[in-house]
Amino acid sequence: MPGPLAPTLVANLFLPLQEELLGVLRGLPAGAWDLPTKSRRWRVREIAAHILDGQLRRISSQRDGHAPPPPAAPIRGHDDLVRFLNDLNAGFVETSRRLSPRVLIELLEWAGPRLEETARATDPYGAAIFPVAWAGEARSAAWFDLARDLTEHWHHQQQIRLAAGIPLLGDARYAVPVMDTFARALPFAYRDVSESDGASVEIAIAPQVDRVYLLRREGRRWLLEEGPAAAAAGAQAPKARISLDLESAWLIFTGGVPRDEARRRATASGIPALCDPFFGVVAIMK
After folding, report:
1. Mind listing the domains of the chain with CATH numbers?
2. Angle at Cα 189 formed by Cα 187 and Cα 191, nearest 5°?
């Protein structure tokens, strides 16, 4: 039976995930640091620097109460926010080009334990400093913001692994909370899709995570639930079903593949208009 997706608590995962990253970076040959990645804009070394930047920013703002520099121009909407964040990210990445791979690794070694301490000290049910805008939220719980941060560290590590020809990280310990967090972008992605009460879309991600999400229409909104559609007598069958593997799922959620490739990577059935929004879902700031 489907039910509400429970809060995704990840404070204990930052440090082990960081160790996975450090294991990859320590083993990279010198030339691999300049390999292009799915990020398109950045090479491996720049992805590593971006991960470090996000960690230092969270430690500074959340642990130390340090306010980031204000935007040069007012933020009046989504596009302004994305532009501000892109400029902020680009500034650190540009500076990081002065740093050697060894220094980047040493800084990540320093940041990992402090990031986990910061996450563990956070009240997961308190208010987040920054809302999760890609889910359409103006205010978010702290657990959601932390889970969003974990997805950043995880999918950027996947980009590095993919670029360097290193096996992807498929450990369900990380992949399940990452997919659960990404899935929270679905109601916002479907916000302009109208349907009758009780209509649903089922999205299955397997193997490695074996997660099934159900988007169900209630009134004028879509609700996200966990688990396959109910098989009870009288229950509505989903009007659309989408199934795909873990790699395809994270690439779609992070804008790593164009729509036509996203469709080829998935198996979709049912009403096309209820499948299409999935292939444009975005669970990053883009």
Report:
1. 7-170 (1.20.120.450), 186-280 (3.30.1050.10)
2. 65
